[in-house]
């Protein structure tokens, strides 16, 4: 009986040292410094979290540049880890999804893309921030109060497809077709596209009447805003 209890206790002890986690993995590696110079994956557990550097290896996981992943891993505590090593061992349980990232052809910087749309007037404010992971909106000028939802694969692929129809580096030269905002007849609107350290900002235009070159993208952005507001 004592032996049986001991076996059960040992089983529970080792089980308590293991944990299963779901991780999101970004589509590119970044330079980082651990014991020495290396390249790290970027991971997070929830779509709304910030990306964090992952210095370790995941046993059984073969990362391929240009694909984002959702994976399930088994995390085990290591007894007496080396001084310059991790105290945790990561082992792949399963790949839940693997999605190819489509980079806009006219953006040379191979970094995640963020789309930001802002419209403001005396009595109105809208900010929409769209990434591959989330659609976030705010009607608060300080952006302290926000609403968000995951950005679906189809929605993000359409964003990137529309970006490929735009000369992104020239959006600051686009002319607004109307000027109602100049006498408070419409909110001032602006589009911002960021990739890595590069930020491209359009000229100001009337909310609801963007330059025709970016009109399809703006319409798609506003449809995503509407989908968040309905939830």
From TrEMBL:
Pfam families cross-referenced by the UniProt entry: DUF4377
In terms of PROSITE patterns, this protein maps to: PROKAR_LIPOPROTEIN
UniProt xrefs under InterPro entries: DUF4377
DUF4377 domain location: 25-98
Q: What name goes with this protein?
A: Uncharacterized protein DUF4377
Source organism (scientific name): Aquimarina intermedia
């Amino acid at each position: 009986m004592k032996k049986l209890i001991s076996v059960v206790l040992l089983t529970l002890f080792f089980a308590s040292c293991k944990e299963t986690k779901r991780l999101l993995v970004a589509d590119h590696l970044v330079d980082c410094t651990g014991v020495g110079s290396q390249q790290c994956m970027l991971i997070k557990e929830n779509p709304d979290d910030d990306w964090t550097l992952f210095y370790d290896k995941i046993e059984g996981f073969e990362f391929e540049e240009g694909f984002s992943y959702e994976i399930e891993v088994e995390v085990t505590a290591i007894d007496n880890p080396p001084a310059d090593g991790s105290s945790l061992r990561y082992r792949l349980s399963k790949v839940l999804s693997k999605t190819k990232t489509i980079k806009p052809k006219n953006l040379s910087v191979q970094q995640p893309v963020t789309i930001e749309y802002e419209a403001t007037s005396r009595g109105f404010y809208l900010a929409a921030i769209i990434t591959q992971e989330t659609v976030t909106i705010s009607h608060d000028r300080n952006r302290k109060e926000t609403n968000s939802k995951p950005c679906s694969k189809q929605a993000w692929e359409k964003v990137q497809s529309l970006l490929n129809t735009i000369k992104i580096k020239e959006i600051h030269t686009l002319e607004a077709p109307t000027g109602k905002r100049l006498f408070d007849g419409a909110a001032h609107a602006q589009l911002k596209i960021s990739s890595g350290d590069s930020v491209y900002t359009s000229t100001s235009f009337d909310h609801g009447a963007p330059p025709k070159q970016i009109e399809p993208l703006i319409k798609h952005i506003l449809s995503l805003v509407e989908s968040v507001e309905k939830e």
